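Box 3.1 A note on notation
Throughout this textbook, protein chains are presented in two layers. The first layer is the amino acid sequence; the second is a token string describing backbone geometry. Keep the layers aligned when reading.
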Amino acid sequence: MSKKIIFGIIATVILIGGGVLYYFTRNVQPSEVVGITIEQPTANQEVQFPLTVKGYINGNGWGAFEGVAGSVQVFDANGNAITDRTPLQATTDWMQRKVSFETTIGDAQTMNNLFTPTGVLVFKNENTKGDPADDKEFRLPIKFANTQTASLKTYTNTTSGIQFQYPNTWQIIYQNVDSTIVKIMEPSSSNSFEVRNISDFDLKSLQTGKLKVDSGWAIAPMSDIYSRLIYKQDKKINIVMSVSDLSPEVKKVEDKILSTFKFTIPTSACTPNWQCGWGSCINGSQSQVVVDANNCGVSSLNANIACPALARICPETDSIIVNLPPGSACVWGVPCDIAWQANGLEGNVSIILDGFVTGSNLPYTISTVPVYPNFYSWIVPSSGYIPEANAHYKIKICGSDSAGTLICGESNYLSIWKNAQ
């Protein structure tokens, strides 16, 4: 056989083999590395809600089952879930390798839950076996259009070194009162967010296990609202979040505020000047207590001095001392004893309920009674004017001395409950 014939046979075999290979492989698509392709929205696209999501899966651990091709969920830049996990509904035959899908996530309310300008769509495969080894995940970064971040307020306390953001519809109720650094509240409800210094009571609760690092949402022991306590040990901060109900929208707003909380380096640091001073007059005497001469507003738990156990008789000045010990509480419809000590006052005194509760018609005059015998039994109203339950108040007593000068005294905080605790 000549060489020309041999080369011809070889060339023919190569051509036939190539043709056969092309025939059997012409319809085979290249395997995708991820296994899922998102056609809408695109990466870093600015989106609004409700949001339509389209795409397809194509193997590599991504398969459909019973018309569902996986699921998607929206998270903000802080890792907070903005929506519930939503199924990816198949729009083509779900039994094929390549399955197209489409779904709509979120609604108009979703835009109100956004506290960050960016976020991520997290896609997960339909893992019918439930084996974690088969889990697949794909993340698509997105931007949020017209988020609340443009209308958020930022609270900064340079003395305590804290900062957080909150909706501009919420209001600061009070600041730097006793152990409370700040408390904000939604005016239309009882929802609130409070940051306070850890008190002796809180520390004891931590030691006994009654207060945990994060106790979760639960009915507060002495109220009928849901609360969540979070202990930030970095600077002995306790965060108290309270809601009137456990609706997902309310919880998300509270959790969003918490997600923006951070410790900061004070821009104008205040150095406490701890000294021993005289406390309030109680039953005609005073004891020495630790005080900060610079009034930095930080807890005396951080003081590095101890005061001697000294006491003295209160100075004879025209004054009123309201004798309500810390932690006092009263109940609707039950007598509440109010006692005071008056020096140099004549005639009658007015007993006034005061506090920092929005919409409580404060101050409210309880009664006007003779200054002596320094005592009044107040039956807390349960009809007509009713003090708001689960709230802090102060009792203020005002009267005049012999010169007609108005003298007032104010109590420690008084708690008022709807029912006996």
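The chain has three helices and 28 strands. Confidence is low (pLDDT under 50) at residues 20-33.
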